[in-house]
């Protein structure tokens, strides 16, 4: 080791370049692997979390692959699926916390008492829920997270048994969870018991799927086994409920069992693996460059190695010495890479990596540290063995002579370095082509119109407590007063309410009927996205009105029930006809109170995704005819939306001092958050493609510079025999061009081999897009040409007399 350090100290420039190259590549791998590990590979912090599954209802023939789970479906599966050890039902909840300080909105979950036993986690203080806590009429109880307990209640152990006010009602604190516990994410701060009423346990509740079902497989049980049992339950359900069977069969109704972790990361899995592959390619290119440097250094040390061999050193000893030097380089690069990885993680956080599923868990831990060192050691051994093996193949006696085998060994080293460079170019081209395609894909996605105006729109969410606003008239009065005050704020051009914001991470869909229309045999009932909105919603978001009218303030409680539909619905059921005046129904079609008259048609809107076409219709109902307690505010302004945030919050507090405002954001930022999942990988691959391009060009330069050095005598002889400097320039550039063309050919072949996988991640552009497949090689060729020019110009300046005299 000491000898290796002394040897490297004699070549500080070589050592610094090699270590920095490795540090950048290994550091990038460590940072990206940290993300990959935290999001895709790391198990949840619950015992045997790999056995936890999600069970969804599914209606594939209605275009609904994943739905929630109704209470009767949950009870059926809990009792009838024997491969499940435990199961639980969970519903999202958001609560106004008005105890011990300023009112705030707290994210929580409504859970069956079985959740905590399913997760296998005990509370740090008190207890979790018993079945008696989930019965009608029982005292309302709550379990707190450690974070909420510390930040809101000062970590007071006497909190147990005391009441806090949630949504205006008292809840008794019965437990506090451990500091490292979370479910389903650290944002969730409390849990309350899920109370089933007798009515909710009946078949009438089927289809009311607002909850999620989790389960733990028994030891030895598989997802496939659980799936077969769930399928058998649905066969039995069809037989038991013959009146619902036509609907179930037309919709393809069933249940699907999926791995819980896989379910949560499926939208980002492919893209993260692509980024990791890109970084790995950059690492290989960097290692190949260092190996090329080691080959050049070994060539220069041939006489030194020959002297060692003449003094009795065996080939194994020489190889071990050279390997030790390379491993020292790679370990130093690995340790420096860890420091760069820490900075890289901060940069990744700025790119929005923390917004990925489980992105909150990204960190450099011991697993990542071990992976980094393993990368350093493995690459040091693999890429150090090649020059060590090559350098010790020469004849010792010949190497000691002035004109020994230097040319032969130089040609061997040149062939090895050329092979490495060709591989670098091929990998760089594959990475560069992918990055260019992602940039083009993102550009097209970014230019897709969502169907609404997202500029200068501020949004905020509220949830009126049921205990304080039990009647529809009270909720309507609050909504009308709020809108009236918001419209008076400076710069506000319109204000509206909606039950669900576009790109707001919440969605509502449901079946409906068209009065007088009977679906063809075997076809499912109509199914639509559902929104409740106030009159100015379309104007605030500039959603085009195509026919009829929008809602008016008179469309309120007690008036004729009206609905606005989008063009997709109108074209699907009334192609070429006017749908104004037609009616739809929700519930019992024979009851006129369930009929809603169509008064307008608007353009389709992309509510959740920009990269998928709008295929499902949307129904807009007047908020004032069916006011819900939870809703969002939409404020269109001529000024900066962010400047109105404080005014909007104060306006709400002026109506109700106990009413918190939460999720206060611009609509632009909501769409941008969706785009972030594509933007971050695109930027990362672009950065690594740039690094790969630079390293590949550096490799070409190194090979040609080495070749010029080895062929100095030949070049001098050519010049002495009459060759022009243009001939020499063409000779060297031709050598570089052959390397580049071979690398490009291999790179294109490699890219075409994986293009089908790349195509799954693209939008609006083919994976074999001709312009892209031409641009990437041109960029690479231009960089390589610049790298060729320096050694080529150096070759043209060789003095024939000096070169021949030196030989």
Sequence-ordered SSE layout with sheet pairings:
Blueprint: H1 2-9, H2 12-41, E1 52-59, E2 64-67, H3 71-80, E3 84-97, E4 104-111, H4 115-119, E5 125-126, E6 141-144, H5 146-153, E7 163-166, E8 169-176, E9 190-193, E10 212-217, H6 223-240, H7 245-251, E11 254-259, H8 260-265, H9 269-300, H10 302-310, H11 315-350, H12 366-391, H13 396-400, H14 406-446, E12 457-463, H15 472-486, E13 492-498, E14 509-511, E15 513-514, E16 527-533, H16 537-541, E17 545-548, E18 562-566, H17 567-573, E19 583-585, E20 595-602, E21 618-622, E22 630-637, H18 645-655, E23 662-666, H19 667-710, H20 712-720, H21 725-759, H22 770-796, H23 800-806
Parallel strand pairs: 4-9, 6-8, 16-21, 18-20
Antiparallel strand pairs: 1-2, 1-10, 1-11, 3-4, 3-10, 5-8, 6-9, 7-8, 12-22, 12-23, 13-22, 14-16, 15-19, 17-20, 18-21, 19-20
Helix pairs in contact: 1-11, 2-9, 2-11, 2-12, 9-12, 9-14, 9-19, 11-12, 14-19, 14-21, 14-22, 15-18, 19-21, 19-22, 20-23, 21-22
What can you tell me about this protein's structure?
- It is a single chain.
- α11 packs antiparallel against α12, α14 (406-446) packs antiparallel against α22 and α15 packs antiparallel against α18.
- The model is unreliable at 402-410 (pLDDT under 50).
- The protein has 807 residues and is α+β, with helices and mostly antiparallel strands.
- Strands 1, 2, 3, 4, 5, 6, 7, 8, 9, 10 and 11 form an eleven-stranded mixed β-sheet that branches. Strands 14, 15, 16, 17, 18, 19, 20 and 21 form an eight-stranded mixed β-sheet that branches.
- It has three domains: 49-265, no CATH class; 405-448 and 672-807, no CATH class; 465-658, no CATH class.
- The protein contains 23 helices and 23 strands.
- The longest helix is centred in the C-terminal third of the chain and has 44 residues, at 667-710.
- The radius of gyration is 34 Å and the shape is elongated.
């Amino acid at each position: 080791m000491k000898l290796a350090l002394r040897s490297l100290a004699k070549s500080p420039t070589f050592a610094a370049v090699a270590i920095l190259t490795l540090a950048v590549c290994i550091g990038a791998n460590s940072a990206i692997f940290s993300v990959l590990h935290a999001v895709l590979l790391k198990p949840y912090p619950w015992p045997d979390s790999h056995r936890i599954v999600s069970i969804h209802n599914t209606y594939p023939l209605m275009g609904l692959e994943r739905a929630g789970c109704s209470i009767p479906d949950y009870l059926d599966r809990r009792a009838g699926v024997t491969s499940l050890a435990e199961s639980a039902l969970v519903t999202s909840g958001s609560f106004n916390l008005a105890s011990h300080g300023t009112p705030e909105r707290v994210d929580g979950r409504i859970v069956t008492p079985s959740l905590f036993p399913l997760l296998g986690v005990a509370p740090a203080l008190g207890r979790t829920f018993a079945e008696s806590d989930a019965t009608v009429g029982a005292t309302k109880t709550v379990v707190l997270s450690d974070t909420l307990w510390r930040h809101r209640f000062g970590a007071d152990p006497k909190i147990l048994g005391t009441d806090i006010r949630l949504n205006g009602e008292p809840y008794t604190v019965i437990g506090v969870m451990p500091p490292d516990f979370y479910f389903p994410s650290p944002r969730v701060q409390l849990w309350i018991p899920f109370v089933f009423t007798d009515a909710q346990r009946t078949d009438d509740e089927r289809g009311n799927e607002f909850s999620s079902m989790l389960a733990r497989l028994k030891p030895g049980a598989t997802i496939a086994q659980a799936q077969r049992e769930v399928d058998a339950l649905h066969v039995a359900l069809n037989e038991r409920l013959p009146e619902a069977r036509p609907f179930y069969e037309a919709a393809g109704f069933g249940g699907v069992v999926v791995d819980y972790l896989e379910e949560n990361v499926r939208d980002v899995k492919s893209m993260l693996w692509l980024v990791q592959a890109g970084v790995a390619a950059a690492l290989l290119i960097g290692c190949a460059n260092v190996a090329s440097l080691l080959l050049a250094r070994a060539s220069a040390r041939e006489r030194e190695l020959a002297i060692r061999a003449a003094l009795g050193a065996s080939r194994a000893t020489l190889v071990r010495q050279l390997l030790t030097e390379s491993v020292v380089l790679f370990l130093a690069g690995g340790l420096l890479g860890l420091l760069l990885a820490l900075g890289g993680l901060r940069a990744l956080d700025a790119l929005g990596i923390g917004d990925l599923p489980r992105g909150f868990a990204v960190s450099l831990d011991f697993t990542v540290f071990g992976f980094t060192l393993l990368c350093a050691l493995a690459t040091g051994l693999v890429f150090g063995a090649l020059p060590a093996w090559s350098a010790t193949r020469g004849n010792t006696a010949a190497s000691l002579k002035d004109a020994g085998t230097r040319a032969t060994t130089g040609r061997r080293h040149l062939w090895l370095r050329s092979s490495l460079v060709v591989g670098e170019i091929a990998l760089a081209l594959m990475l560069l082509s992918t990055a260019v395609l992602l940039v083009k894909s993102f550009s097209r996605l970014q230019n897709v119109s969502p169907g609404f105006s997202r500029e200068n729109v501020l949004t905020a969410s509220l949830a009126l407590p049921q205990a304080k606003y039990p009647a529809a008239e009270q909720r309507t009065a609050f909504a009308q007063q709020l809108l009236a005050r918001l419209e008076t704020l400076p710069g506000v051009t319109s204000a509206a309410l909606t039950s669900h914001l576009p790109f707001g991470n919440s969605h509502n869909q449901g079946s409906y009927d068209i009065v007088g229309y009977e679906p063809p045999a075997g076809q499912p009932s109509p199914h639509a996205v559902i929104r409740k909105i106030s009159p100015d919603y379309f104007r605030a978001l500039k959603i085009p009105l195509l026919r009829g009218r929008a809602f008016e303030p008179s469309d309120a409680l007690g008036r004729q029930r009206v609905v606005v539909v989008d063009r997709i619905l109108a074209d699907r059921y009334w192609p070429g006809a006017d749908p104004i005046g037609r009616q739809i129904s929700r519930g019992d079609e024979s009851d006129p109170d369930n009929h809603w008259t169509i008064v307008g048609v608007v353009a389709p809107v992309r509510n959740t995704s920009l990269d998928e076409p709008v295929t499902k219709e949307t129904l807009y109902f007047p908020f004032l005819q069916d006011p819900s307690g939870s809703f969002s505010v939409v404020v269109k302004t001529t000024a900066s939306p962010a400047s109105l945030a404080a005014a909007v919050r104060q306006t709400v507090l002026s109506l109700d001092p106990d009413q918190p405002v939460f999720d206060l954001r611009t609509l632009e930022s909501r769409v941008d958050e969706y785009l972030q999942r594509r933007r971050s990988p695109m930027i990362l691959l672009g950065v690594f493609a740039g690094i790969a391009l630079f390293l590949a060009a550096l490799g070409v330069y190194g090979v040609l510079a080495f070749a010029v050095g080895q062929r100095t005598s030949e070049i001098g002889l050519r010049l002495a025999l009459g060759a022009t400097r243009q001939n020499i320039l063409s000779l060297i550039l031709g050598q570089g061009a052959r390397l580049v063309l071979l690398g490009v050919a291999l790179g294109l072949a490699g890219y075409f081999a994986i293009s089908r996988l790349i195509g799954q991640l693209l939008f609006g552009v083919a994976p074999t897009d001709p312009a892209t497949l031409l641009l990437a090689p041109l960029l690479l060729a231009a960089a390589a040409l610049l790298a060729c020019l320096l050694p080529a110009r150096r070759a043209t300046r060789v003095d024939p007399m000096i070169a021949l005299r030196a030989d």
